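Run log // design_07
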């Protein structure tokens, strides 16, 4: 017969049991899930404080029995919960798992996941079940939010006018939105199968790959930034459409790019409008150049007629008047004769003044020195004439040798100088102007500088600045440009440059 345990033997066992209960209590507090235990023989149910907390009950509110808590299950879930229990018991399963909704003390429903483990006696009869209950409310809300976001995203994708794509780092498609079909005629599956080689024209593919390689190299060492590219796509019907791509690289946590997400926008109409505008601009430039050529031709013709024919006629008239004057001087000086002599002398002086006016007009229309000696001498002639007419100090400096420019280029640069000098006389309030003509690398450069009040930004934007537009147009028709600058110390600099190659090609 085994002797009963003495107090000395009972004390360590009691201490061991106490510590075990403490560890169990701490474990119940530490675990975020609720714990439950159901004794089948007595039909009693133990619920941990966390289990009660999930449903809003205080820890000291003990359950009467299992049936009193089963009534908290949502009516639509009761059959499923009962079935899960029954299947586990009938099929000798050692565990079960079921989702359900439980009624919170405040009246709302809480989604929970219940996991149970069944204990059996040696004969296999179930004697108890124990397990955990996990609060799924936040997860369910997150899942619902995700489903809503996914639904909204799908609605946007299905109805967007733009194409959304995800590409790997070789620009192979990983995802293409359905909007590709109305734009290109290809279904998503067809577009995925074609890939970049089948969708893009060869020239566009080459350009896009060059941009991608450059941007990818930059993305590996710089902060994220959007990438842009324009390319052509051959539609299923064979027509060409133009697209603009705006993409951004997706990165791993360490910052390494692994894919690119893009929005691809149809810019066919915009591109065609730009091409029409460009063609219209080219036509306008050609028209302006043609009108300028006609105007210069007409100026030259009028200048030649004025200088040659009218000038010769006036010179002949002057010689006749002088002959008449000398003849009258030989006659007896009666009052009537003296009066006639004065009239002839006045007419001779008027003829001289008219000849000077004719020469001035002919020079303004087309200075003969420009055609005979070239641009440099013509600029020096114009500077001298400007100085004499306005009293403003003007100096023109040009290379000693001839630039051997064609007449129409000589004319364009000369007219730019004339327009600059006209603006100085009218608006600048300057006392000095310098004109410099030189060759800088591959350009012929013309620089006109004054010490006046300086050009204003409003002058450049004014619709009345036709003279400035005219200068720009003269240079643009030969591939050049004109820059207007206000000097910090006062005055204006106008710089016109025309490529030498353009000049030589147009000789």
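design_07 sequence
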């Amino acid at each position: 017969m085994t002797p009963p345990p003495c107090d000395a033997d009972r004390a360590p066992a009691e201490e061991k049991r106490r510590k075990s209960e403490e560890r169990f209590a701490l474990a119940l507090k530490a675990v975020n899930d609720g714990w439950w235990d159901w004794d089948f023989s007595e039909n009693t149910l133990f619920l941990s404080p966390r289990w009660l907390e999930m449903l809003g009950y205080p820890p000291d509110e003990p359950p009467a029995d299992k049936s009193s808590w089963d009534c908290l299950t949502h009516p639509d879930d009761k059959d499923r919960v009962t079935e899960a229990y029954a299947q586990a018991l009938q099929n000798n399963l050692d565990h079960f798992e079921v989702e359900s909704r439980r009624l919170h003390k405040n009246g709302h429903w809480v989604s929970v996941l219940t996991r149970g483990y069944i204990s059996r006696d040696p004969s296999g009869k179930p004697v108890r079940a124990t397990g955990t209950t996990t609060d799924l409310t936040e997860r369910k809300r997150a899942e619902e939010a995700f489903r809503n976001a996914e639904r909204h995203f799908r609605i946007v994708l299905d109805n967007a006018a733009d194409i959304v794509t995800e590409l790997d780092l070789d620009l192979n498609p990983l995802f293409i939105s359905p909007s590709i079909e109305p734009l290109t005629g290809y279904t998503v599956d067809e577009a995925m199968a074609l890939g970049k080689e089948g969708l893009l024209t060869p020239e566009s593919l080459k350009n896009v790959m060059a941009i991608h390689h450059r941007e990818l190299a930059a993305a590996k060492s710089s902060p994220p930034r959007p990438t842009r590219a324009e390319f052509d796509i051959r539609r299923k019907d064979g027509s060409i459409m133009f697209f603009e791509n705006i993409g951004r690289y997706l990165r791993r946590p360490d910052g390494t790019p692994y894919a690119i997400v893009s929005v691809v926008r149809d810019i066919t109409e915009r591109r065609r409008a730009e091409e029409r505008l460009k063609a219209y601009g080219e036509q306008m430039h050609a028209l302006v150049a043609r009108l300028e050529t006609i105007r210069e031709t007409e100026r030259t013709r009028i200048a030649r007629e004025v200088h040659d024919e009218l000038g010769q006629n006036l010179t002949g008239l002057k010689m006749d008047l002088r002959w008449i004057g000398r003849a009258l001087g030989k006659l007896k000086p009666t009052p009537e004769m003296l009066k006639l002599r004065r009239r002839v002398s006045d007419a001779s002086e008027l003829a001289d003044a008219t000849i000077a006016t004719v020469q001035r007009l002919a020079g303004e229309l087309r200075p003969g020195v420009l055609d005979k000696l070239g641009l440099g001498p013509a600029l020096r002639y114009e500077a001298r004439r400007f100085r004499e007419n306005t009293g403003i100090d003007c100096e023109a400096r040009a290379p000693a040798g001839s630039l051997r420019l064609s007449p129409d280029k000589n004319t364009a640069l000369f007219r730019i100088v004339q327009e600059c000098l006209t603006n100085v006389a009218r608006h600048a309030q300057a006392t000095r102007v310098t004109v410099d003509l030189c060759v800088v690398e591959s350009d012929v450069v013309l620089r006109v500088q004054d010490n006046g009040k300086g050009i204003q930004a409003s002058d450049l934007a004014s619709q009345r600045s036709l003279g400035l537009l005219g200068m720009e147009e003269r240079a643009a028709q030969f591939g050049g440009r004109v820059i207007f600058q206000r000097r910090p110390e006062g005055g204006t600099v106008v710089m016109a440059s025309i490529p030498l190659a353009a000049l030589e090609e147009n000789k």
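The first helix runs from residue 7 to 30.
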